[in-house]
Design a protein that fits this description.
Blueprint (H helix, E strand, L loop, with lengths): L1 E7 L5 E7 L3 H10 L3 E7 L15 H13 L4 H11 L3 H15 L4 H6 L7 H13 L2 H54 L9 H15 L1 H20 L1 H12 L2 H24 L4 H7 L9 H12 L4 H7 L5 H13 L2 H57 L1
Antiparallel strand pairs: 1-2, 1-3
Helix pairs in contact: 2-3, 2-7, 3-4, 6-7, 7-8, 7-11, 7-16, 8-16, 11-16, 12-13, 13-14, 14-15, 15-16
Amino acid sequence: MQYNVLATDARQQVVALTLEAANETLAANQARAQGLAVVSIEPTGYRFRLPRRQPRFQTTLFSMELVSLLDAGLNLVEALQTLAEKERRAEGQEVLCAILAAIHRGEPFSQAVAAQPRHFSTLYVATIKAAERSGNVREALGRYISYQEEIERVKKKIVSASIYPAILMGVGSLVLAFLMFYVVPRFARVYEDTAGTLPFFSKMLMSFGNFVGNNVFVLGLAFAGLIGGALWAVSRAEVRAWLNVQLWRIPALGSRMKVYQLARLYRTASMLLRAGIPAVRALDMVQGLLAAHLRPALSKARTLIEQGQAMSAALGATGLATPVAARMMVVGERTGDMGQMLAQIARFHDDEVARTIDWFTKAFEPVLMAVLGLAIGGVVVLMYMPIFELAGSIR
């Protein structure tokens, strides 16, 4: 059987070759006998595999480990070789070997990571490239780590605040569906002979139960089709964009989402400015982080800056600066440290978003529990109301 082998040679250059062997172990032994370090082995030809998510290189963890090794006194090549030797995942070994091979060919570190766009973003490459001019790559990596930690902190806050309401809605919906599609149809059969004497709302509920009981197969197919159609629609980029626009049109929610977007803009621009990248170039690079309908405003602001306006005035004129942000940017322009000031503005708006999430969670959870309780309780009361009336008439 033939195997495709990816390995590195003595000069740390990536080598791809095809070997004939009875199994993967023998193929690996053949490669090692040629003086190669095996990275991955895959059999040639077609094999059925369940689809799985491609593993991604952990850029932030890589940066943290690289900073630690540089602080310990190793140079860049030695640090990368150390990380490659300790890496056990094939994906990580492939990326690190490719970076080392590029550096051994004489390419700068920024160009080596730029050749891996799937794992290293444009912002990461630009930060490293700007740091190479001053020779302080370690400081640039530290800025990137701090940037990612702040982004992850806000994301974790949003996710943790969404978990309990999502579980509550899921469980409540399942209980309500169980009552409506399983319990109610069986109660409807019990009340068939007394349908004319039922209260109005109970009669409607029992009619629904009869309809469900008589059309279980059709309703099951319709429900499965609805779920499949919803999943297909969500997978389409244009549908997600349309849903995003609708969310932005909700006044209270849209304003909070804009603050979150602006915080990302300020934090990323801060990292780039502190790395020595000019303001116009920095705004051009962060354009992809904004929502689609905010990007024209950022392009206009970039044009105004090119025409000589201050960043605070340009962003304020295009609606990309809150009153607090505009005043703080003026102070940053006076002191000449706009990068640091933008980081403080981003932190201020992140705290504002966190307070909004806390308030929304505390207000939404009781309301959601009350709505689900009333819905489930209403169904149960309507099912048992005829029994209550019968007990009252007996007395």
